[in-house]
Write a structure and sequence with these properties.
A hairpin with a 2-residue loop joins strand 11 and strand 12. The protein has about 425 residues and is α+β, with helices and mostly antiparallel strands. About 30% of the residues lie in helices and about 30% in strands. Among the domains are: about 110 residues, Rossmann fold (3-Layer(aba) Sandwich), CATH 3.40.50; about 70 residues, ATP-grasp fold, A domain (Dna Ligase, domain 1); about 80 residues, Aldehyde Oxidoreductase, domain 3, CATH 3.90.1170. An 8-stranded antiparallel sheet has the order 15-14-11-12-13-16-20-18, sandwiched between helices. The protein has a 4-stranded parallel sheet with strand order 3-2-1-4, with helices on both faces. Strands 5-10-6-7 form a 4-stranded antiparallel sheet, with helices on both faces. The longest helix is centred in the middle third of the chain and has 17 residues. It binds adenosine-5'-triphosphate (ATP) and magnesium ion (MG).
Length: about 425
């Protein structure tokens, strides 16, 4: 659906399009005829790739770490450019988007819950208030407090930063011996790059939920939730849980798909999503059929999930988000019943990338995240990913197997 054209289409301000969602928002804006603007810092803008610069109708240069100033600058910018939609793209700036939309009287998320989709402690409170099934949790400022909290939660448990993403600082801990190290790992993030945003350094301890993991996005317009397709997720096992791949459709039976979609929608509403999109992750303990919500972000998913979902179902989540922030009915009906799977190439250890080759198998395409000569971080979070393969096929099993085959035949040398 075209809702505008070139300079005459509606204007949407994206709060930090640098990141995985940016490319999908740019493409969606092109399809819809939306003028896309970015709010960012000028130093961060200097690092934008050419395709992103070229796609933007304008840039609001401000300091996104200074909330009053950023709100003032963005409000003036939106009025000057007749912007009528605010789209958060970066999880840490979702509160700014809610506050800005309120100031401008535009569709947006509940400003009273603005921080709940960013801060996992406030998220835990919002889930508890709404009766969302989620892991039991406790907050700790240091290892001593964590030891006390662990007694109540039991082992294994999950230690994570209150505010972070990409599995950074997340550890699954089996017993007291590993706890102090896990708390230190979670507390090491005091600021988030590239803006230097100050983070809540409190640590969250959560009951460990066993079972398979899924994600489900929800587009919400005027407080009405529209569920999007469910995606199956693969992760590493052990102390560090890094997402190794995603497959759509999820392979879950239809009633459980509806259950996941329902819980994801409730979680999105619980953290105040009213006009926008939410990305929710759940785990289903074996043999239960009862999903637990791990987290919800008020943003598009990362990990090229927009591509995977569209390839499998025809649903374009970035289009749906732009429609939602403009207060329009979102296009959420699937138009195909194919399957797609993404698999990430992970190193066995950190070092320097010497060589990488991903075979060009029919039905797949690949992308490198790192180049030979780049430093490869230790495989403790998603920053270590070397590249990915996307496979399309008629069924989820085939797509997943094909992506797995391409990854297995890839050559990665880290010295
Ligand atoms: N309570 C839990 N029980 C079981 N596994 C968990 C729990 N919390 C987190 N995990 C595992 O750790 C992963 C990362 O945790 P979480 O999603 O909370 O962190 P994140 O940094 O926001 O992740 P990302 O941005 O990659 O989605 C999850 O995808 C899941 O595999
Ligand atoms: Mg997560």
């Amino acid at each position: 659906m075209m809702i505008g054209e070139g300079p005459h289409g509606p204007g949407v301000l994206v709060i930090e399009p640098m990141g995985n969602a940016g490319r999908f928002l740019v493409e969606a804006a092109g399809r819809l005829g939306v003028r896309l603007y970015a709010a960012t810092h000028e130093d961060v803008h200097d690092g934008y790739p050419q395709w992103l610069r070229a796609a933007l109708a304008g840039v609001c240069a401000t300091d996104l770490t200074d909330t009053p100033r950023a709100l003032e600058d963005m409000e003036a910018f939106c009025r000057r450019h007749a912007v009528t939609g605010i789209a958060p793209a970066w999880e840490l700036f979702t509160p700014l988007a809610a506050l800005l939309a309120e100031r401008l009287g535009l569709p947006g998320n509940d400003p009273r819950l603005a921080h709940a989709p960013r801060n996992k402690i406030l998220m835990g409170e919002a889930f508890a208030a709404a009766g969302i099934p989620a892991p039991r949790w406790a907050v700790a400022h240091d290892a001593a407090e964590a030891r006390q909290a662990a007694e109540a939660l039991g082992w294994p448990l999950v230690v994570k930063p209150a505010e972070q993403g990409g599995s950074w600082g997340v550890s699954v801990v089996d017993g007291p011996d590993g706890l102090a190290e896990a708390v230190a790992a979670a507390r090491r993030f005091t600021h988030a790059g590239p803006h230097g945003l100050e983070l809540d350094t409190r640590v969250l301890l959560q009951e460990y939920i066993p079972g398979r993991e899924y994600s489900c996005d929800t587009v919400v317009v005027g407080g009405v939730a529209h569920p999007l397709p469910v995606v199956g997720k693969d992760t590493t096992e052990g102390r560090y849980r890094i997402e190794t791949g995603h497959t759509c459709p999820s392979g879950l039976p239809a009633p459980l798909v509806r259950e996941v979609q329902d819980i994801a929608a409730r979680a999105a509403l619980a953290v105040g999503v009213r006009d926008g999109i939410a990305h929710t992750e759940v785990k289903i303990p074996p043999g239960t059929g009862s999903p637990y919500v791990i987290e919800t972000g008020a943003r598009l998913p990362g990990d090229n999930l927009c591509e995977v979902v569209e390839a499998a179902t025809g649903v374009n989540e970035a289009v749906a988000q732009l429609q939602a922030v403009l207060g329009l009915a979102p296009d959420t009906a699937p138009t195909r019943t194919d399957a797609a799977s993404i698999r990430f190439l992970l190193p066995e250890h950190g070092g320097v990338l010497r060589r990488v080759e991903i075979p060009d198998l029919p039905g797949t395409h690949s992308e490198l995240h790192l180049r030979p000569g780049d430093t490869v971080p230790e495989p403790s979070d998603s920053a270590c990913r070397i590249g990915h393969v996307v496979a399309r096929a008629e069924t989820a099993d085939r797509a997943r197997a094909l992506a797995g085959r391409a990854a297995a035949r890839s050559l990665v040398e880290v010295g």
